[in-house]
Design a protein that fits this description.
Layout lengths: L2 H13 L13 H8 L1 E8 L2 E8 L4 E6 L5 E8 L5 H5 L3 H10 L7 E4 L4 E7 L2 E7 L15
Antiparallel strand pairs: 1-2, 2-3, 3-4, 4-7, 5-6, 6-7
């Protein structure tokens, strides 16, 4: 009987979408592509690269990757909000706290600290946002590249 729960856990783990998480290595970008059922395109830039995934419904998730392979920024736009818990990873708790403190305010939600910046806004069928870790950004790259 102990095998059944273990098998169920293994199946759930294998089928759960894995995102290239902010602050971690880019190895899971292909899993993101499968999760979004989208087209993956790599856009090389000077000093970093962008892994852009475009899904059939028009959602675009861009993952900004340093030459060391670390995801230093993420942006999104489209008709559906991506799962920010998966995208932000260990930074999600800070984002949740910011959401709670701004719960009664209209307009975009913004979190700016020396360790994390998240901006998220939009409305039904038109969501957009970005997140980045200032300390992980490559030298000579400005925050404005994450868009």
């Amino acid at each position: 009987m102990k095998i059944v729960p273990a098998m169920l856990s293994a199946v759930l783990f294998v089928t759960a979408p894995a995102w290239a998480v902010l602050g971690e290595y880019e190895a899971s970008v292909n899993s993101d592509q499968q999760s979004l059922r989208g087209e993956l395109r790599t856009i090389p830039r000077e000093g970093y690269s962008i892994q852009q995934i475009t899904s059939r419904d028009g959602t675009v998730v861009k993952e900004y990757v340093s030459p060391q392979g670390l995801v230093f920024g993420i942006s999104w736009r489209g008709p559906a909000m991506p799962n920010l818990q998966e995208l932000l990873g260990a930074y999600f708790a800070q984002w949740q706290q910011a959401q709670r403190s701004q719960a009664h305010r209209r307009g975009p939600l913004v979190l700016r600290t020396d360790k994390l910046v998240v901006e998220s806004g939009g409305h039904l069928r038109a969501f957009h946002g970005r997140a980045y870790v200032p300390n992980l950004m490559p030298n000579n790259i400005r925050a404005e590249v994450v868009q």
